[in-house]
């Protein structure tokens, strides 16, 4: 089991976005937007997660007729467990004031 | 997909090792789907940063043979010239970061990136010519020197200084493109024709006047004379020093241009990180000259002259209103840096290939050898 502090905030957001996408998966740019990460951060992360078996990457036909296929990223079962063990850390400012009392 | 985005992804694909190129293709398809050009460009630059990191990581790993399997450009980047390419790429990238931090127009970033791509192609062609022994230093240096003289006489002027040339919508500074290449070619072949070319270049730089490049040329050639004195090298260095003195004696009222001049200091006013990026990028320019890679004698001379010229340009940028190479806005220095990497071989010679040089052998121009070849 991966310790909750092992993954970067960006990795956690990517996993969370993929959890929310479910079986439909996400394309790369959509993942950048939803996880709020830059492409230079996303792709090395995806490469690593895919190599470790947490994410699958498949070419699938584009929704727009006549356009080339696009990569779709989905979590594997191991990836969903990883996401569960590594939730997105919310900032202290985002917590209700009462929590700090 | 815009041309610049397509160009960037071409670089991304070239930089990544074979096994990751499918990811590059996937990212390129994503960029194609992005409707807003600015966002597509930012997406592409992010991928370029990723690819550059992969190339550097790959270059730092110990080489392992895989039956001669082609491992892409990342494998090629392990040699001396590859080190220079990585440094150029990193310096240009740091410059893009600095300009972005300072709010430079997008066109500045595109221009520098485009110049880098152009310089890569030009270096590749130069390398091909060199491989086929079609790069004679003498005639080329004479031609380049005369080109600089033509710029001094007929080029574009500003504030009494004539050192630019207009190529359609582009304004280039030929001295930054040409002089570093001339210097390293001369280090390789110190024949009379090559020396004449350098002398003509020194005259041109004095006429323009261009103190920065004149000083850099003098610095590189003085180093050459100190390491390997000869009649030809001494004469060329003398011309370069006199030319530098003549340039210094003339007024040069060029004001500092934003993102071009004086950025070694002004970048810190934007943000400390921007300042550090400019400093780091500038330091990277001379790193190839300091790298501990085995080279033969002439290649070592070329490396030293390369280091002297680029150190001279950085010093000029620090003390006067002269372009800060690669990290500032300006494609001419980027192209010039890449071309001057011809001084470095693609691969360091193996123990079998390294020629056995005797310290008592005379050089081709009759001068003594002070620096004996070592293995």
Major sheet attributes of chain B: 3 strands, antiparallel
The DSSP helix count of chain A reads 4
Shape of chain A: globular
N-to-C SSE string of chain A, H for helix and E for strand: HHHEEH
Average pLDDT level of chain A = 84
Rg calculated over all Cα atoms of chain B: 21 Å
Number of strands of chain A: 2
Helix content of chain B: 55-70%
Structural class of chain A: alpha+beta
Within the largest sheet of chain A, what's the order of strands?
Answer: 1-2
Strand content of chain B: under 5%
Oligomerization state of this entry?
A: heterodimer
Beta content of chain A comes to 5-15%
> Which strand order do you get reading across the main beta sheet of chain B?
1-2-3
Query: What would you call the shape of chain B?
Result: globular
**Got a strand count of chain B?**
3
Briefly note the structural class of the backbone of chain B: mainly alpha
Topology of chain B as a string of helices (H) and strands (E): HHHHHHHEEEHHHHHHHH
**Main sheet characteristics of chain A:** 2 strands, antiparallel
């Amino acid at each position: 089991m991966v310790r909750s502090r092992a993954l970067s905030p960006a990795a956690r957001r990517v996993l969370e976005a993929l959890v929310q996408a479910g079986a439909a998966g996400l394309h790369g740019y959509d993942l950048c937007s939803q996880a709020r990460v830059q492409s230079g951060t996303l792709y090395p992360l995806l490469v690593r997660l895919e190599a470790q078996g947490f994410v699958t990457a498949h070419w699938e036909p584009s929704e727009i007729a006549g356009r080339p296929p696009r990569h779709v990223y989905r979590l594997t079962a191991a990836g969903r467990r990883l996401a569960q063990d590594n939730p997105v850390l919310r900032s202290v400012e985002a917590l209700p004031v009462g929590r700090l009392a | 997909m815009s041309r610049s985005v397509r160009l960037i992804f071409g670089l991304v694909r070239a930089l990544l090792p074979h096994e990751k190129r499918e990811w590059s293709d996937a990212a390129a398809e994503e960029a194609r789907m992005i409707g807003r050009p600015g966002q597509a460009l930012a997406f592409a630059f992010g991928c370029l940063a990723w690819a550059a990191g992969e190339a550097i990581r790959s270059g730092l790993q110990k080489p392992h043979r895989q039956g001669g399997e082609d491992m892409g450009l990342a494998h090629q980047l392990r040699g001396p010239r590859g080190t220079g390419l990585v440094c150029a790429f990193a310096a240009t990238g740091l410059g893009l970061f600095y300009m972005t931090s300072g709010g430079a127009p997008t066109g500045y970033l595109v221009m520098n990136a485009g110049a880098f791509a152009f310089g890569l192609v030009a270096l590749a062609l130069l390398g091909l010519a060199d491989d086929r022994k079609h790069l004679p230093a003498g005639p080329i240096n004479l031609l380049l020197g005369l080109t600089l003289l033509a710029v001094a006489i007929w080029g574009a002027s500003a504030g009494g200084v004539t050192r630019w040339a207009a190529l359609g919508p582009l304004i280039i500074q030929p001295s930054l493109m040409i002089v570093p290449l001339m210097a390293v070619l001369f280090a390789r072949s110190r024949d009379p024709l090559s020396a004449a070319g350098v002398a003509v270049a020194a005259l041109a730089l004095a006429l323009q006047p261009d103190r920065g490049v004149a000083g850099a040329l003098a610095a590189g050639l003085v180093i050459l004379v100190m390491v390997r004195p000869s009649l030809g090298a001494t004469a060329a260095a003398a011309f370069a020093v006199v030319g530098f003195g003549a340039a210094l004696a003339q007024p040069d009222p060029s004001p500092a241009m934003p993102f071009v001049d004086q950025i070694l200091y002004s970048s810190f006013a934007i943000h400390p990180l921007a300042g550090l990026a400019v400093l780091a990028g500038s330091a990277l320019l001379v790193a190839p000259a300091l790298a501990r890679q085995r080279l033969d004698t002439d290649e070592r001379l070329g490396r030293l002259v390369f280091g002297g010229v680029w150190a001279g340009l950085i010093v000029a940028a620090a003390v006067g209103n002269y372009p800060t190479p690669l990290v500032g806005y300006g494609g001419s220095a980027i192209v010039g840096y890449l071309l001057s990497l011809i001084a470095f071989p693609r691969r360091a010679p193996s123990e079998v290939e390294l020629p056995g040089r005797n310290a008592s052998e005379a050089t081709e121009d009759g001068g003594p050898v002070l620096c004996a070849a070592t293995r």
